[in-house]
Specification:
This protein has one helix and six strands; from the N terminus they run E-E-E-H-E-E-E. The strands form two sheets. It has a four-stranded antiparallel beta sheet, with no helix packed on it. Bound molecules: zinc ion. The site of zinc ion has 7 residues, from loops. Zinc ion binds next to loops.
């Protein structure tokens, strides 16, 4: 079981959260400069890194905030949590 330290609620059981995928850059504003292949990659090819990665989590049974969690996928150790919009 993971304990996720929500910046708003404090340490909570992972069952209060929903994993929402790896961190991704926001959709590009200027689509004119993006090839079709790059746009398809952006839409449907998620990164799946082994090791330390940044992930979105939603505290759906808590404060309802979106979090950016840095987690090592090999050990599940959570290295940091922050408000997702703070980046
Ligand atoms: Zn929370």
């Amino acid at each position: 079981m993971l304990i996720i330290d929500c910046p708003f609620c404090g340490p909570r059981d992972e069952r209060e959260f929903e994993y929402c995928g790896p961190y991704r850059e926001r959709r590009p504003d200027k689509m004119d400069n993006l090839s079709a292949s790059d746009f398809i990659d952006y839409l449907i090819v998620p990164e799946n890194p082994e090791g330390v990665g940044r992930e979105f989590w939603w505290h759906k049974r808590g404060c309802g905030e979106w979090l950016l969690v840095v987690r090592d996928t090999r050990t599940h150790q959570i290295l940091s949590t922050a408000e997702a919009d703070a980046e």
